[in-house]
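Review form for a predicted model. The reviewer records the input and the model, then writes brief findings.
Reviewer: anonymous (R2)
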Amino acid sequence: MSKGSQERSPSYQRSFSQNDAGTSDDMDKSMEGGVRNTNNSDGNTTDNKLTSSTSKNDDAANEVQNSAMGTRATDSARVTKFTKELSGQMVILERLRELAWSGVPPYMRPNVWRLLLGYAPPNSDRREGVLRRKRLEYLDCVAQFYDIPDTERSADEINMLRQIAVDCPRTVPDVPFFQQAQVQKSLDRILYTWAIRHPASGYVQGINDLVTPFLVVFLSEYLEGSIDSWSISDMSSGKISNIEADCYWCLSKLLDGMQDHYTFAQPGIQRLVFKLKELVRRIDEPVSRHMEDQGLEYLQFAFRWFNCLLIREIPFHLVTRLWDTYLAEGDALPDFLVYIFASFLLTWSDELQKLDFQEMVMFLQHLPTQNWTYQELETVLSRAYIWHSMFNSSPSHLAS
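Model under review:
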């Protein structure tokens, strides 16, 4: 992706109304605290408006947060909007992005994600045929690259396969489902096949995390209840193959927009970490100065955030809601990650200013998010949206 495409704002206008808020009782709580009524600010907003307190009590974010509460009576209206967008012969992706940004009803996620990533075509007449063809193509790739003896692999390919085998058991270790042998085998196949087909980067540690939201969402079409009770041991090989294929192609689509995040030296991530530092300096000068005075480098904590897209930083049950917003951003995602991660970091602005270097390193590597609910996540996204609205017409302050 070119620098210009990373810095431009999304081509669609995110619109939020109270009618979009809330979920019904038979859906998960992923939209209870959705972002609403966040009108774009003037692009020439003065700096002093941006240096107000950015702790958990941030007034602007709380105002946005509060506007979304108590709107459960409108649940059916939101579901109706999704149903209407998905039921036509041609899905209007810009409208689907607008809706998805604030959270997708869980049972609609598989179809919505396939559409947002451009894996499934918006034309409903073509969709089934395209998915069938792409799933068969994945099977061919597995047969060609994975289901072969090591004698037919190069030394580099053998080393890559071994590294993936080491990393799969480390993937989301606090969720027992991912420790099942069949699940790890699927991760192994997807990752190795992707790496062989993308030699510019090959396999990079962290990409294993990026498969997990796709795996959970596409499995949810076949498995019910909590992920804690899931098992794929009784699933047919055909279903497992289709799920793997969907994960493979969606991972490919996601990473196509972030290729330089995973090539040698990962320059895309280095660039975004620099932008994050500059954005935090503009928004919260006291915490920025304190971190600088203590000698804390952003790469020491934020590299992992960009590498794994926060999957290791928040409870896993919140990840799919976060990824609704990621995928709704489309090509603008790398740029918008900077705002999400600034908002995430400044959740703890007050605490960070009381810590020395060693304490900050330990704190940022083990953030107290284990008890987070959707409300905390929505607050992070609310602030990110507001700050993006303030800055998006004058991005030069973040130019590297």
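Findings: The chain has 18 helices and no strands.
Further findings: Confidence is low (pLDDT under 50) at residues 1-74.
Recommendation: see findings above.
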